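Anyone else keep sequences and structure tokens together like this?

Example one:
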Amino acid sequence: MSIAVPAPSTPAAAVGVAPVRPQGGVPVPAAGPAGGAPATRATVAAAIRGSVRRPIALALLAAALAGAPGAVAAADAGPAAPRTPEGASAVLDGLKTYGQAVLHGTDGTVRQIPAGLYEMRVDGGGMLQTYGVGVTGDAQPQARFTEIGWNGTPLAGNGDAGRIRWVLEHSYPQLNDLAGLAKAAGAAALTAESAAAGTQVAIWRLAEGVAVEAVDPAAEKLADYLQRAARRLPEPPASLAVDPGEVSGPLGTRIGPVTVRTGAQSVSVTPDAAAVAMGVRVVDSRGLPVTSAVNGAKLFFEVPEGTPDGSAEVTLRGNTRVPVGRVFTSGVPAQVQIVAGSSESATVATATAKWPRLPAAQPADVAASGGAMTALGAPGTPAGQSAQPASAPAADPDTSGERLAASGSSAATPVIASLAVGLVVLGGLVVLLLRKRPLEDGPGGPERSTEPE
């Protein structure tokens, strides 16, 4: 490591050296006497060495130690846990039945856009009909979508989300009687295309409050009617879900329960290969093995004594119609789709059980050395006073070791490693600041100023 030192003739102000107030309270000038030459490196070093090196070293060390817990905490928080898969997954085929609409932008722009019904192919079998939630979504064909609840989508917190479900329940394609739908709306004859366009326009208005209207007069009348008549309905249940998606508990007990939520008559229950290899069983409340379940069933995990710490997963599969009003997301909020119709479709959900290992007892020599390090490095202990006695009440135990043991690693590992390296480098800088002498000093003598008397 090399540290650049400005030449003696360079004014201190030019290299950013600000006046420093030493412990005695007298400022050290950044330049020489008024009208004189700027301070040399020797005089600046002499002034700084006795007054600044200790505060700088302590400040750097304190900053590093103060920042460490926050860095570790931030790393432990890590990214949000992935959502437990539930319900159906599908691929968007594209816009199939549609008309045209006119969107008025807040900036005064006017543009014509397609408005209508999409189709999606469900993984494992089945078809869905959907409308777009976002008016500017421009959902792309072949994009992959997964079923999700309203929370986490643009419908979260939208007071009109329940009204959108009403629109879906009372319009095309749920109502195939287009003549009756036109009569209710006070419109002329409706086609599938104009009915789809009018329904989509009504959904956009309720979802985003945008100024949009259908080009076809009959479709526009339908949109107005649906928007006026819509009533709030509750969010529909998932086609297949488990509640909760993850459970934990000690060995020797039934871990759970996990409650099955589904519209299917029955779903299969299959533990993963790792769970089977460990002897983990999925059972009901009586301890009987479970291979299928119905809506409301409660599942438990039985883990044999002596099983190493770990986790097991069970997969539930079934076939049912995806409820109208369920939403599908591709990860892009503007491209959220909402279900308007469904065939019998394949659905899947997973549940996980974990049994964390208890923390091992700390060896006596490690505990003793840790205590010695704490006593030696306790910040804020005045000179001549001892650190906190061993009999003082201990702080709350740190459970980070338990989390680390249970998972095999931690999200904080990279930060801890970087922090360790930073502290080593910082220690070197502290030693350098405390022990380094200016180049003008003799091998064993005091500093001598090069300024003329």
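And example two:
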Amino acid sequence: MLSCFAADYRTAGFELLERLATVTPEFVADVVRQQVGLDGAVLLTTCNRFEAYLDVTDAQARDAAAGALLTAVAQQTGVGTGEVTPVLRTFDDADAAAHLFAVSSGLESVVLGEGEIGGQVGRALEVARIARTTTPGLEQVFQRAAHTSNQVQFRTRIGGKGRSMVRLALDLVESRITDWSEAGVLLIGTGSYAGATLAALRGRGVRAVSVFSPSGRAARFAGREGVVPVERDALPGVLGRADLVIACSVASVPVLDAAALTAARESVGRTRPQMVIDLGLPRNICPDVGGVVGVELLDLETISLHAPLPDFAATEDARAMVDAAVDEYRAAQQATAVTPAVVAFRTHVFTLVDDELERLRRRGESTEAAERALRHLASVLVHTPSARARELAAEGEGPTFVAALQTIYGLGLDAGLDVGIDAPGPVPSAGPRPVSRSLVDDGPADETVSC
């Protein structure tokens, strides 16, 4: 059973999301290992949302797993269950898949149709693989989500405008930057979101970019991206001279406050205005930076207030594609649900054939032609019921087929589950997969996307 527990910017607000963002996949993995009935989990945290996708055995296990997860979250973050529970939405089975498909397609984001979310969903699955908390069911639904996201991005107008929080933030500071080609930019953070930010800056003609990494990885990023690395001892000077500072690290504590920025400005005698954009979650920039004379601070909450109204026609097209993907997922799940009955039926028929052939052999009446004929007859007999089972399942009438088999043949649902017969079934688990070099090298500090 697939379940999703989700809180986003509309229900929880950015302050609560910031506190929930400190929950780690490793912490969730501990809950999975300890909780009976919870087979797997994928944690998705971005600047817009905190979501946990769970693979549970049944509704009772779902409720127990939710309670255990919330208790664990409270222990790690200090956010009580009474504070989280009211802002959580719960989705089960096809509804959970529908929510994930919409999220991965950018339909639930602050900036409708944002391009980064699809990659964030993919990375959430990759991290869960590394933590060994994926299951065949989670693999299947997340892979379908990735396919849906790609379809929406490439086949609708909603994905064709390069929408993102980064681009919206740069739109908001456009009037303060007179010449992008002459602007000095300091980028704080070196993960994949920093890469997206750098691409957006270059798209506007920015040439002078320096990068600082709170975890000391600026040199590698700079060498790869062709920008200037900044060591910690040189940071005040670069910070004071920058016209625009953009922070997008996943550092667990703020990396810049009012005192540090004031000292940096004074060290270079700066009096001209500065723009500071905080895209981190948890926040990278202390709110008191906004009180420094000559400095204007844009954080996620402020940026979200300026999100453009949706393009309704494009949104409708995208949602239609999501609905179609959900229908396909539901049909596949329904077909999977009758697999044990199909397998049990086919096993029953072929066992009868084997018994009859053995009886003929004992009597000396078995021939190669007789064996081929009997096995062909058995295949013909099981073909139509097996095909009909899939049709009924797709129509939501799978239980009718199961009940008929139980009534006519007295077959139990647990029969024949290990027999390798060509009935529909779940996608095999990918299991532990090779870790990509970027994940290994970048590590869990400020190198992963935070927004």
